[in-house]
Amino acid sequence: MLRRKGVFVVLGLVSLLSFAAVSQTGWVIPYTSPVGTEALVSFANTSGVNLNVLHLEFDQEVTVTYYTAVGGGMMLLGEATGTVLDFAGEIIPYGELFVTWEPVTAFPVFGQWLAGEVPAPVGSPFIGSIAVLGRLFGQGIVAARETAPDALLAAFQVFFMDNAEYLASLSESLGMSLQDSLMPIIMGAPAEGIENFFNTIVGMLGVGSVEEVVGGSLDFSALFALLGL
């Protein structure tokens, strides 16, 4: 069954070759619902190719109350209530899937279109929380460590050069070298350990959104480029 197993096998690899910029991509479009208790969101196919699966994750349980596709046909897989929703079918380029759910305050923390008989990510993901970004960062580092260790080391060399002044100041305040502390974790820790380290650093930066991480004091561009984030 496609729900969970097939989707998570692909997304567990962090979609290294398909992820573009972390900044929001414009294909997740919220509207004002005529029913005040429900959220109304459009998920647009901006990829230029036919798409077959929409995978959504939430940080709270939602209940889908209605959905309709314009430019194709999609059906909800599994239960209408949960923190993970998968829709399958086909959406043509520039088509849209409109979904309403309760509660009205809920919004996806992650979204990804996929296509093909064995669904593979297409286009940029929607990343709506720092927690999800940290999870993908940890998984991506492990995947890069296993498949392209030289590229991973090169990316971190650029990261340390890009942030030399800031990291020196931060290391001084902590009383330890961040580079010396970080690299053993990067090269040996499981994804969860790297995720925890990422979240610790982000917490020290005092940021509260994905956009603030991307545009904040630390320049992650070399690492995000390697991971395709």
Detailed description of the structure:
With 229 residues, the protein is α+β, with helices and mostly antiparallel strands. The chain has two domains: 2-128, Immunoglobulin-like; 131-227, no CATH class. The chain has eight helices and six strands, in the order αββββββααααααα. The protein has helices spanning 2-11, 130-147, 149-162, 164-174, 178-188, 191-205, 210-214, 221-227, and strands at residues 28-31, 39-44, 51-77, 81-102, 110-115, 120-127. Helix 2 (130-147) crosses helix 3 (149-162) and helix 3 packs antiparallel against helix 8 (221-227). Mean pLDDT is 86; it is low at 1-24.
> What gross morphology would you assign?
elongated
* Secondary-structure arrangement, i.e. CATH architecture of the largest domain: Sandwich
Distance between the termini: 28 Å
Number of helices: 8
State the major sheet.
6 strands, antiparallel
Oligomer: single chain
Structurally, the number of domains stands at: 2
Kindly state the number of beta strands: 6
The SSE string, one letter per element, is: HEEEEEEHHHHHHH
Mean pLDDT rating: 86
Tell me the CATH topology of the largest domain: Immunoglobulin-like
Query: How does the helix and strand content classify structurally?
Result: alpha+beta
Order of neighbouring strands in the sheet with most strands:
1-2-4-3-5-6
Low-pLDDT sequence parts: 1-24
CATH C-level class of the largest domain is: Mainly Beta
β-strand amount: 25-35%
Indicate the radius of gyration in whole angstroms.
19 Å
